[in-house]
Amino acid sequence: MPEPIQKAVRRFWALLDSETVRLFVWPFFIGLLCWGIYGTFFSAPIQFVYPVMGEAWYNIWIWMHIPGPAAVLAGLMMRRGGTPIAQMSTPMLFRDYMGLWLQLGGYVTMFFALLYYEISAIQATHWGASAFSVFALAPYVLGCLFLALQTGRKLWRGETLHRATRKHGWHK
Q1: Residue 162 lies inside a defined structural domain of this protein
Q2: In which residue ranges of the chain is pLDDT below 50?
């Protein structure tokens, strides 16, 4: 791979690995959870996507808005971000690890839920109708994808470190 492309890829991963999105994640996923509860129990179906999705898929799509964000929020509460590994006990490390898995599951769930909405909205409307929701949600679809990639990389690096410490006998 040419050096400029390698450099751009390294910068992308460094940006993705930063913790600068943590503050944004809370209100975003609380909002999605609130929408899931409201949309499931109180709201009438969204009229322009309901015919495209059909009743069964619409119900699945709405219900995905409850466990997806709930998994992310539970995972965030389990994590001890910023605590050095040397200061973490085995239960704390396990809790952090499981929190990452919950976050990953929630991010992937919401990526597909939001992507499905985008596709349905584009298919259901002619150009101009519902353009705001199509354009306004597109960054959130990508955001969920980036969060899933970021969390997956954290898990991959943790697994790699764990294998290396076991291989060299550095674990207790």
Answers
A1: yes
A2: none
How confident is the model over 81-112, as pLDDT tens digits?
666 666 777 788 888 889 999 999 999 999 99
Residue 124 lies in domain: 21-167
Q: Are 76 and 99 in contact (CB under 8 A)?
A: yes
Q: Sign of the C-alpha dihedral, residues 121, 71, 20, 38?
A: positive
What's the CA gap between 98 and 168, in Å, rounded? 24
113 domain residue, yes or no: yes
Number of compact structural domains in the chain: 1
Q: Is the C-alpha dihedral spanning 108, 112, 113, 118 positive or negative?
A: positive
Quote the CA–CA distance of 86 and 100 in Å, as a whole number: 19
Residue 85 DSSP class: G
2 domain residue, yes or no = no
